[in-house]
Amino acid sequence: MAGAAVLRSLRILHPRTLATSGRFLDPGECVLFPASCVLYPPWRSSPARSLQVCSALCAGHNKWSKVKNIKGPKDVARCKMFMKFALLIKVAVKEGGTNPGMNVNLANVLEQCRSKNMPKTSIESAIKNATKPGLQLTYEVRGPGGCMLLIEALTDNRTGTNHEIKRLLSKNGGMISEGVRHNFIRKGVVVVPGQNVSTDRALELAIEGGAEDVQESEDEEEQPILKFICDMVETSKVRASLGKLGLEITSVGLEFLPRISLSLSEDQLEAASMLVEALSDCPDVVQVWDNIQADS
Questions:
Q1: How many CA atoms lie within 13 A of 194 on its CB side?
Q2: % residues pLDDT > 90 (the chain)
Q3: Does residue 211 lie within any of the structural domains?
Q4: Cα dihedral sign, 262-264-270-275
Q5: What angle do CA 171, 175, 178 make, to 5 degrees?
Q6: Which of 115, 132, 152, 256 has a beta carbon 3.0–4.6 Å from 184's, enabling a disulfide?
Q7: Within 13 Å, how many C-alpha atoms sit on residue 274's CB side?
Q8: Quick check: 113 and 146 in contact, CB under 8 A?
Q9: CA distance 48 to 29
Q10: Considering just the CA atoms, what is the radius of gyration of the chain in Å?
Q11: What sign does the dihedral 259-260-266-272 (CA atoms) show?
């Protein structure tokens, strides 16, 4: 009787547990959880003690999924942007030397890099590496709907870059076409925010600032901007004039602008966008210029 009483007391103090098989375990039995639910130090070949951490693992996985989906694309875009800036630096150095005081184009590119928070070490590395041998290539291309593209590239492997550009063109409806270069002219471009600036006021500012023309556009974040166009040698002067007029200068640089723009159908525009995106993602491509009309 006493033994039965003791057993009942033990059962009260140590209630039986339901195992995964559905059998009630007697006191003193242990439960071994699946290996996928067990964490133990890598220096042990087997766990000294089993710990159930499935819920913690799942929580961590869900958290990473959110971080990957939200932060990942931004980090990738940021990395690509810095890579393109590095190429722009190299091109500017090859054209005018490593001294920003004597190389206006380099000074403008460096200002853009700083405005986008490009690390100082990355900037210095790009300038240093710019003195290494490299070829500047320009590809004249016809794309979907007859649009014209001018592709600037910088490479130390002409054959490899030629092969990759031709592959991307063949895959996305483009082809090499001589004579496209004549439809573009290189100009100085000063960019300022375009919020709350009417078209008439923009034209007035262009005249007062000494610019040849002004274009309304959008930046990568779809915010309105104004692009003041001028002769390359007048870029610094126009920038200074616009600054004195109280405008915030977003960026200054040299661009290839089309002499004649072309409107595309919706399908053609989608195909052209895919081609431009594919070319822009090529590591050796510095810039892709086009003559596609941006319909409002």
A1: 22
A2: 43
A3: yes
A4: negative
A5: 165
A6: 256
A7: 14
A8: no
A9: 16
A10: 31
A11: negative
User: What values do phi and psi take at 195, rounded to 5?
Assistant: -65, 135
Q: Which two tokens stand for residue 175?
A: 């082809």
Same domain, 240 and 153: yes
Specify the length of the chain in residues: 296
Same domain, 115 and 147: no
- Give the range of the structural domain holding residue 163, as residue numbers without chain letter: 135-290
Q: What letter represents residue 163's amino acid? A: H
DSSP state letter for 45: S
Q: Are residues 171 and 205 in the same domain?
A: yes
d(CA 205, CA 8): 94
Rounded-to-integer distance, Cα 282 and Cα 4, Å: 81
- Considering 129, 163, 183, which residue would you say is the last residue of a domain? 129
* Structure tokens, 77: 């875009």
Q: Give the pLDDT band (50/70/90) at residue 32.
A: very low
pLDDT, position 156: 87
Q: Residue 147 and residue 141: Cα distance in Å, rounded?
A: 8
> What span, in angstroms and rounded, lies between the C-alpha atoms of 89 and 1?
93
Contact 274, 143 (CB under 8 A): no
Hey, which of 12-26, 104-118, 175-189 has the most confident mean pLDDT?
A: 175-189
Task: Please tell me the distance from the alpha carbon of residue 180 to that of residue 142, in angstroms, as a whole number.
Answer: 8
Same domain flag for 193 and 265: yes
Residue 169 near residue 191 (C-beta atoms within 8 A): no
